[in-house]
Design a protein that fits this description.
Layout (H helix, E strand, L loop, with lengths): L19 H16 L25 H18 L3 H15 L4 H7 L2 H19 L6 H7 L6 H14 L9 H10 L14 H22 L8 H13 L17 H5 L1 H9 L6 H18 L2 H15 L14 H5 L10
Helix pairs in contact: 1-8, 2-3, 2-5, 3-5, 5-7, 6-7, 8-9, 8-10, 9-10, 9-13, 9-14, 10-13
Length: 339
Amino acid sequence: MDHPAVFRGGAPPRRRRRSLETVSSIISVMRIQEETHYRSCDYLSSIATPRFAEARKPINEECRRKMLDWCNQVIDYCNFSRETAGIAMSYTDRYLSSDTPSAVKARNDRKQYQLLCMTAFYIAIKIHESDEMEADLVSKLSRGCYSAQDVTRAEMELLNGLGWRLGGPTPLDFCRHFLELGQPSALDDDDDDGGNDRVSAVLLDLCQHQIEQATAEYRFVGVNPSTIAAAAVLNGLDAFAWEGVCAPSSAGFELRRLVSLPGSIQRTARIELASPQVRACRKVLGGRVVQLCAGRDMRRRLEEAVGTAAVGRGEEGVALLRPRRESLGRSGSPVSVVP
């Protein structure tokens, strides 16, 4: 069963906010899915076997990175969402985590691996983008390495290998729903002037940049999307210095909701935010937030978002939340996985 009501391509629409009970239920379903049918594992560790000693060159982390770079180039040229490239890589990772003969062959044959990645990308575009990509175009993009028939044949192999399960939760899906836990519900949303949406949009943007980095790093294959999302949200919150908190009594934006967001995530998703795995993810991804917050544009967006949320309410004595790079800096910068 694919997870319900996932918003892609931005923050959840204000006019359709859901109750916290509904959001919590969706997150619970997504957590079950990532623990069952949508798992990946370290498939590269199973490559070095005598049986394939004389085969074509087996794939490695650099092969995966190059294929993701290629997907992102096409994405940017076509003005698609980069999340679609991440979804394509998740299809590929899940497929290669199996022991089917075609998956084993793709792990040990770079040409087959390239066809697999291009086919996964082709499927992801058909499902998640408004413009469809034809198999003939994939063939042309391969510069004649694969025919349209090769693509359609690989498509069926991939779909069967995945059990036709193509709607698994992504890290960005989890981020969107985690941030909804900090949104006013539909019942107290009448007077919201959009300040809450502005803060959520900045946080979601910070999360998306971190998730793009996680997608490119093979070390994150096998890490639950919810874990990556939790780390990204925590790092995003660290971009704000919580020097003072004021919760307006009137309906609308409440800074208290975002202050309590980590606790809400931990209770709802049942993720231990202080676990070694979450801390390790934060350490790797935190450097990306440091880079973003060092830029003038992101600093301006942070200050404007919080200024709208806190000051726009006419509240007095609310300390503006400002970028705090030093806490993230202690986490260290990303380390390349390429040998």
